[in-house]
Amino acid sequence: MIKKFVVRQAISPGTSAALKVLAEQLREAMPANWAGVDEDWDAAIEIMNDEGIPLIWVPRGNIVGALMSASGTAERHAILIGARDDVVADCLAMLAEVTALELVPLAGLAADSGRALRDGHCAASQALSANVFDTWLRDMVRRGKLFKPPGDREPFYGAIKRQIIGVSGKTSLRELKAAGSLSPVLMALVSFKPGGPVPVQLNRHATAHAAGPEQYSDVNAVIALMLTTSVLRQAQASGW
């Protein structure tokens, strides 16, 4: 008869303490709103990069999980529209945590946008969220906190996009929240020239220069608020 032996290696107090530190670091690196979510990293990258839907800081975990499990963009948009009130509540909660003096006025306006969306004023909310987001971008350049000014004859928004490295399979956990909060910015700044085809996805330029039913939609209002909230809350966390 073959006897089975189980070898148990004792964990020294020093190793145990190191493991606790590592576990705490992992908890801090993961987005708090992903708690309880069975992460699908490929889906998360697609959602943030290709669809421009923020997943960092907002929305809450069950919505994040539903978005990751959804079959495509149309289903994700339906989820966001159906969960609008919860998304607004999550955004208002995160904006209330923004306390840096340079960010507080923008957070206050973003909260106004959230309340407008909660009351069903989607177009007004989208316009205000997009303007707050754009003001934040320009303030980051002005203060030299995150983006460097564009070079000679370089387009302003092109310079910003050039400096953003979206989240990918190579993104470390330490970089996840910052990179993930900026990934949807790339979609929001996709090139659009007035007079050309109006994009249906949230687009900062089209929101400002092509007001109409193609760009202004219920789901774009939700995404605009999420995007503005996400970058402001990450700016608070990162000291931008």
Overall description:
By secondary structure, the chain is mainly alpha-helical. Helices cover 61% and strands 0% of the residues. It is built from 11 helices and no strands. Helix 3 (61-69) packs antiparallel against helix 4 and helix 7 runs parallel beside helix 11.
In short:
This protein has helices at residues 13-29, 41-50, 61-69, 73-82, 84-95, 104-118, 122-143, 156-163, 173-188, 204-209, 218-238.
Number of helices: 11
Helix content: 55-70%
Shape: globular
The pLDDT mean sits at: 92
Query: How far do the termini sit from each other?
Result: 66 Å
The total beta strand count reads 0
Low-pLDDT regions: 1-8
Secondary-structure element pattern, one letter each:
HHHHHHHHHHH
Sheet-strand content, in percent, reads under 5%
Sheet with most strands? none
Structural class: mainly alpha
Radius of gyration: 20 Å
What would the keywords be for this entry?
240 residues; disordered N terminus
Topology:
Layout: H1 13-29, H2 41-50, H3 61-69, H4 73-82, H5 84-95, H6 104-118, H7 122-143, H8 156-163, H9 173-188, H10 204-209, H11 218-238
